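1st attempt posting a full record on here, be nice pls
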Amino acid sequence: MSETMAKSLELLKAAVPGLARVAVLWDPATPSHGPGVKAVEATSQALGLRLQTLAVRSATEFDNTFAAISRERGGGVLVLSTPLFMGGARRLAELAMTYKLPTMFGPREHAEAGGLLSYGPDRADLYRRAATYVDKILKGAKPGDLPVQQAAKFELVINLKTAKALGLTIPPSLLGRADEVIRG
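the predicted structure (as tokens):
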């Protein structure tokens, strides 16, 4: 999971080549976020980016968090994936637009809700693989005997409508890598 978070930062930098400062929103209640923030910090150094990490514990903090990013002159936002942020997908996309901040999210639903970019596991692929496990269990396999699997297929979604509203031109090389481009 940490690798996905680091890759998300790389993709945000590719979408916004002049990016120098990125705010990272994370939820202390999500166990993967601690290691994820460390991976993002290491990647930010390699990319020459300065980070502003902001712990967000509830949806009531979204507005103040984006105001703080603006005060610190954040150039972009990386939102780590968690149910808290999924539930607030539309509000987070609205705030990113209000503050004119290019934002990278995890699940595709964020880009569909108006976020600029999303990069995360292909959920349809995860569901198919889960069905295979259910089938094996129903046929008598013991769950503890089945190997743990991680996501193998990831998808990049780019919202060009949002890019246009932010005054961004997404590089053709990144558009060519996208699994889906939202145009309108």
